Amino acid sequence: MAAPRLEIDLDKIGHNARTLVERLGTRGISVTGVTKATLGSAEVAATLLQAGVNGLGDSRIENIEAMRIGQPSAPMTLIRSPMLSQVQRVVRCADVSCNTEIEVIRRLSTEAQQADCTHGVVLMVELGDLREGIMPDDLLDCVRETLNLPNIDFKGIGTNLACRSGVAPDARNMAMLTELAEQIETTFDLRMETISGGNSANLQWALSGAEIGRINDLRLGEAILLGCETLHRQPLDGLYTDAITLIAEVIEAKVKPTLPTGQIAQNAFGEIPTVADRGQVTQAILAIGRQDTDPCGLQAPAGIDIMGASSDHLIVESNGDNLSVGTEVAFQLNYSALVRSMTSPFVTRNMKPA
């Protein structure tokens, strides 16, 4: 079988999704299954829908277009604010989009009129993480104009935390989102369909028994795919953390010194390595590198230590393991390593059916 490759166990992904759907369901929260880390995989999308997610979410319209072929009627949300250059594609393939700029929503309205359809809009609110979001003081004005635009269906509001600045979802900022939702509903005499509290970082809060207020949706990707919460990357009880593994092949195995010979300057990535002299070690090189994954996001099996990487080579040391040429090594991945591996054209994907 080709290497490097991602081994993707759809049964384990389905289990993780179904477990989270059930646990959050008891709290009145539905799950939007986020597919962006899998490049909108048709197989993963089908698995999530079978597990009971309320719909699919992706940050790239290209992925939504690909998924739409196999899932013509599944609810799909573009979870990144649309580019003006792509609004026509967004209206055609996404049922809903998350938005922060009224200029974009106006263009969505125009395109929806031309397509004779209605496009749903969720307004994203800035609650401290300083990535995307309308400032709370500007929210009512944005809602007012959105409600007045033809062929636009105002679905509700949402927020995003713990992505740029690491701000954790907690009772304070989640209560603020609830307050904003109630303020909107009172001001405009309406009932919103969606109050999306955030992503996998919200699980610790959502499952703690805390008051959830009006939050009724979470957008989950990493927790489903990797089985962990994302504030501290701790495994979630009852979930698989090995649903996806990265397999790489050894292309060199030799005993080498640990101390480089010669004058040290910058390496290929502008770094100046600092290396201690530990004598001779058993070193192996695997045919994968920074062009294919995030080496810092890989966890090697016991007895193998990752020592460094260049564009196309991953250097490891083994403590007695026989890493002969042709041997395959399986690595666990964090989110960064997974996303980069999925986007590399040199890493194949092997789906294990559910």
Automatic annotation (TrEMBL):
Pfam families: Ala_racemase_N (PF01168)
Keyword Transport: no
Alanine racemase N-terminal domain location: 8-224
GO cellular component: cytosol
Cofactor(s) this protein requires: pyridoxal 5'-phosphate
InterPro entries xref list: Ala_racemase (IPR000821), Ala_racemase_N (IPR001608), PLP-binding_barrel (IPR029066)
Keywords per UniProt: Isomerase, Pyridoxal phosphate
One MF annotation (Gene Ontology) recorded for this entry: alanine racemase activity
Protein name as annotated: Alanine racemase
Organism per entry: Geothermobacter hydrogeniphilus
Taxonomic lineage: Bacteria, Pseudomonadati, Thermodesulfobacteriota, Desulfuromonadia, Desulfuromonadales
